[in-house]
Structure formats: C-alpha cells, structure tokens
Amino acid sequence: MCLFRVYIPIRDEGLLYDFQQGTNHFDRTDKADVIHRFIRPSSNTTDLKSSPKHRQRFQNPARIAPINPGTSTRRFTVPSANASAQSESETNNALAERHPLFLHNTQSRKKERFVPQKDNNNVSMYVCGVTVYDYSHIGHARVYVAFDVLYRQLVSLGYNVTYARNFTDVDDKIIKRANENGESCDALVGRFIDAFHEDMDTLGCLRPDIEPKATEHMDDIISMTSRLIGKGNAYATGDGDVYFHVESLPSYGALSGRKLEDNRAGGSDRVAIDDRKKHPGDFALWKAAKPGEPTWDSPWGKGRPGWHIECSAMIEKCLGSSIDIHGGGMDLTFPHHENELAQSTAACGCDVDCGDGSTSDPFVKYWVHNGFVKVDSEKMSKSLGNFFTIREVTDKYHPLALRWMLLGTHYRAPINYTQRALEESSDRLFYLYQTLLDASEARDLALENLSTKPPTGIAAEGITLAFETKLAVANALADDLNTPLATASLSQPLKVLNDLVGTKKGKKAVGRDEALSDLVSVVEDTLEKVGLPTTIMATTQEQGSNNSDTSSLADILESLRQLALTRAGLTLSDIEVATKKREEARAEKDFATSDLIRDELFKKGIALMDGAEGSAWRPCPVESASEEE
Ligand SMILES: [Zn+2]
Fold first, then answer.
1. Is 213 helix (H, G, I), strand (E, B) or coil?
2. Measured in angstroms, how far is the CA atom of residue 167 from the centroid of ligand 1?
3. 371 Cα to the center of ligand 1, angstroms
4. 211 CA from centroid of ligand 1 (Å)
5. Which residue(s) pair with 584 in the sheet?
6. How many CB atoms lie under 10 A from the CB of residue 216?
7. 312 C-alpha vs ligand 1 centroid, how far in Å?
8. DSSP conformational letter for 449
9. Order of strands across the sheet that contains 13-20
C-alpha cells in the first residue's frame, strides 16, 4: 500500500488529493487516471441526473474507486496567502471562498473578487432592460447574452440569484411611435414585450426572476422623488417638473469619473441653458404632462417620470436599497447609471455615515458593463444603415450561431459583427453539435458493453483531457467570464471525440466507453454554462422520454442545414439532383464535371462529402460572405 498525492493548481491555491493505492482500481501508477476516478462521482451530477445509463454505470461497484473518505481530499492553500484573513472570509462567505469569481467593476476600474454584500449566498442582480417600442437589435442580444452567462455562472457556483431586468414602458420614443401608428402606448408596449421575450428565448437567455415595468411602479417612483425633495437633493420647478440637484451630492460622478463642470444638461451635448435648473447637469425626476401623453397624478401635478428614477425606484422595491450587481451596456455608464447611483445613494443614505459611526452598504457593489457592437468595423447605427434587428439576423442564421458569435469575444471588448463571422459561427456550431450527437450515440452503444480493463492510449488521454478541460473552463469563466477561452477549450475534446467515434484506433481503444462518457459530459457541461442547449436540457424538458436524449441536437442540426439551404437559395431536392448528377459523372470517370458540381455548391455554402454510404452534405461557410453584404 502506498499513498498517492496529487496537487491540482488553481490560481494561487489548489486542491490536494490524497488516496491509497493497492485496491483493484488503483494498482496503476497513472496519475491522471487516478484523479479522474476520484473526482468523478461528485463532478458529474448533471450527468447522473440526465441519463439512466449513466446512473447504472456509476453504481456499478466494480467501477467505483474505493477511497477512504477521511483521507481523500482537503483544502490546500499556498503558504504565502494570508491565513487569518482567509479563514475570516471563509466564515463570512464560504461559497465565494470556495469558488472564486472575478468580475471587472466599472466603478473601481479593476477586476475584483466577487463576494456578495450580505454574508450569505444570496445574490441580487439588476440589468437595465429595453425601452419597448421596436424590435431588439444585435446590441441588445449582446447585453442580455452577456448577463445570461453571468446569471448562469452565479447559479452554477451555487448562489441563490435574484435577477431583475426592467421594461421601460413609458418614454418619448414609445409615445411618438404609438402616435405614428395610431395605437395606444399599452398596445405597442405589449406587442414589443412579447417580441422581446421571443427573441431572448431563441437566443437561449433564461428569463429573469423579476421583470418590473415602470408604469407598475408609479407609487414607488413618486415616493422616491418626494424623499429626494425632502432630503434637499431634488427640487420642483413650480411648473410641474422635478430635478435632481447634482451639486447636493458630493460623490456625484464617482461611477463614470466625470467632473461636475464637464456635465451639460442631458449628457455630453451642449444644449440651451434651462434657467429653471440650479445646475446644467441637474436631471429630470418628474416631467410635467404634455398634451397627448400618458400621465399620472403626483404631488407636482400630472406628469410622468424621467428615465433614471424608474430604475432606482424599481431596484429599491424589487431588490432592496443595496444590491450586488448592476449591469448594462457600457453606454449606460453615463448619464443613466451615474444618475441612478446619485438618486439611490441620496434617497437611502447608502455609502453615507449613518451618524452612529456605521456606514450603510453601497447602492451597488459591482457595476458590470459590456462593450459595444460594431458592424463591419463601424459603429452600428440606424443612420449608417448597418443596423440589424435580432430577427433580421435569425431569419438567415440560427439564433445559437449568433449567440456563439457573441460568446467568441470577451463581453467587455468591442465586438465586430460581420456576416463572415456569422458564417463561421454557424459552421462551428454545426461541427460542435454533429460531434456531440455522434459521440452521444457512440457512448450509449459503448456503455451497453462495459470494459473492466483500465483505459489505455487515446481513451486514457481522453479521460485526462476531459478532466483538464473541466478545470480550464471553470477557470476561464471565473476570470471575468472569459467565454472565448472557455469555448476554445472545447476544440481538443471535440477532436478526440471524433477520433474515438471515427478512427480505427479510437474504436479499438480500451476504456473508450469511459472516455466518450467523460468527454461528452464536459462538452455538455460547458455548453450549458454558456447557455447553448445540450442533451441534458432536452431530457429534462421532455420528461419520461428516454429517446429525447439526442433529439434536440438533431433538431438544431436540421435547422442549421435548412437555413444553409435557404441562404443558398436551394431546396433539398436541388441537392439531391446535383448529387445524382455528380454520382453519374463519377461513374463515367468525368471528374471535371463532378468537381464542378461540388465546387459550385461549395461556393453557395453547401459542402458535399463522399463517404462509404454515398454522398452526404453539410453546410459550410460562404467564402465571400462579407464582400457580398
Ligand atoms: Zn436602468
């Protein structure tokens, strides 16, 4: 008997595994094999849930590592870490300690370790939603995909997250559009809320827990405005408007770093001085009614709220006066979020000495902002004509291809939207889902005939790779949601899965069942973390159906094929005709014609593949995509 000790470094600390050798499954000196067997029972819980075959597999006593729990694992910290500080925060927030997550905080301008404000595992997150007067564009897709990944990450780390995202349902643009259409604001808003939900669902974004609407929180908005007047932070002009007085709050500008003297009314643009305002940077909390507008009664007369106050009031009502995460697009930092911060800080006394020496929690602990979307390297705007709604894109490309494209750039970096990038994302997605489908089927067959021998060769390497990928993905996402790195980590596992499924060496590998199982799990697990559907989701949605395991993958592949045909302006029977012509040409050894048919389809995004069972086809990227646009 001897002791194995394996240290797995994770950032400045790591996990140390100790276990005994000498029993039937640990009599080999293959380190990776031992780690893998040790971690598996706890690491694959989603897998266990989803597949009866897996459950049976892990319950097979011959395959479970006989580890003495007392010596099996313990926390390991490098000696340089401050031991006493560490143990104190461990008690304050064990979860943040156990699963470090780093987020870039706009306010501090640096990456910070995420620890919830309160000493428990509850997290409150508010993301500014859309103004519902039109279809959402790809800039919206980017914001809500980014925060969906953050939401999923927090939930997967074990936090109990309350995610709120509002609808701005009273606004100049809504009123103008409803008047143009000759419909009521309510009707317009209702239609575009439904459209927004549809768009977000197709992009795989989970619905927030709370979706407050400004018009349903008028009392809260009026009450906060009154409080701000009472505290001397806001003033009524006497003709029905109420303004927040920026000079009343010394910390104004803390989020954006702007100085008060730089602020002009309404933001950075110089506008005519309004002499009813005490300072040009003062912004409206309440606007007096104008003819033809929806209005609400208030202590200052009939009117409607300004944009910034609605978020402050709804956050306080839905999540409390101090929250963990506030998100949105980078363009909201100023003035919207700066003004929200000012209102909420002034209204509740957040971040202000309470008089008894204590300071209350800040309004927001982490301000998180995502970068812009550029189209063909230019700023996306309606006036430039390079403005795309989500629907315009998803008429041609699979919504998950758009999601994959968005995930390919770090959420804080500017993203360059090109048709070429979408072509490549579609292609990658097809490869990914086809590999996963083939590998899942091969795994299910392999699991019917379990091997009892220790894995060797490509299977052993695959098992190690699955474990390493799991760590790499976890580390990438924990590092300020590095989705490009997390998704790139799948390249090697997908390659090895294809080898295991399709090559002679792979098919013969001892332990192939186990390697397929582990690699499929890590790919599925990663996809779920970044919000792409997997077999796991299909199984839980269609409960009781064992055959639904791979149906969602097949469905996605089918619609990727269908969209490629639509883009090419072809039908399935066109492909069948071309394939038949090509087969005839080949039979007559007329390879020039055969190649011509293949090349012409290839240029249109259809790749013909010659295999043992005849010709098959799959979508491929159109080379000249960006020039055509
Ligand atoms: Zn907002």
1. strand
2. 9
3. 16
4. 12
5. none
6. 12
7. 8
8. S
9. 3-10, 13-20, 73-77
CA–centroid distance, 591 to ligand 1, in Å, is 62
**In this structure, CATH architecture of domain 48-220+287-417:** 3-Layer(aba) Sandwich (3.40)
Mean pLDDT of the residues in the chain: 83
d(CA 381, CA 419): 17
Q: How many CA atoms lie within 13 A of 332 on its CB side?
A: 22
CA of 628 to the centre of ligand 1 (A): 38
The DSSP string of 542-582 is STT-GGGGGHHHHHHHHHHHHHHHHHHT--HHHHHHHHHHH
* Confidence (pLDDT) at 271: 55
How distant is the alpha carbon of residue 90 from its chain centre?
28
Q: Say how many Å lie between the CA of residue 128 and the centre of ligand 1.
A: 4
Collapsing DSSP states into helix, strand and coil, what is residue 165? strand
Domain ranges of the chain: 1-35, 48-220+287-417, 221-286, 562-619
Which stretches of the chain score pLDDT less than 70? Answer: 1-92, 119, 262-272, 349-359, 535-551, 624-629
**For residue 337, how far is its CA from the centre of ligand 1 (angstroms)?**
7
CB of 428 closer than 8 Å to CB of 488:
no
Amino acid (one-letter) located at 211: E
What separation in Å is there between the alpha carbon of 127 and the centre of ligand 1?
A: 7
Taking the centre of ligand 1 as the mean of its atom positions, its distance from the CA of residue 311, in whole angstroms, is: 5
Which pLDDT score is estimated for 348?
84
Contact between residue 66 and residue 25 where contact means Cβ atoms under 8 Å apart? yes
**Long-range contacts made by residues 59-63, C-beta under 8 angstroms, separation at least 24?**
60/450, 62/24, 62/452, 63/25, 63/450, 63/452
Q: Rounded distance, CA 353 to CA 370, Å? A: 32
* Residue 286 confidence (pLDDT): 98
203 Cα: distance to centroid of ligand 1 (angstroms): 22
Nearest to 223 by CA among 237, 204, 242, 207: 242
In three-state secondary structure terms, 382 is coil
Distance CA 117, CA 576 (A): 61
CB count within 10 Å of CB 85 equals: 9
From ligand 1's centre to the CA of 199, what distance in Å? 20
pLDDT at residue 263, rounded to an integer: 55
* Ramachandran angles phi, psi of 591, nearest 5°: -70, -25
501-522 confidence digits (pLDDT tens): 999 999 999 999 999 999 999 9
Place of tokens 């990663």: 526
CA–CA gap between residue 475 and residue 11 (Å, rounded): 8
Cα–Cα distance, 383 to 130 (Å, whole number): 20
Distance 75 CA to ligand 1 centre (A): 41
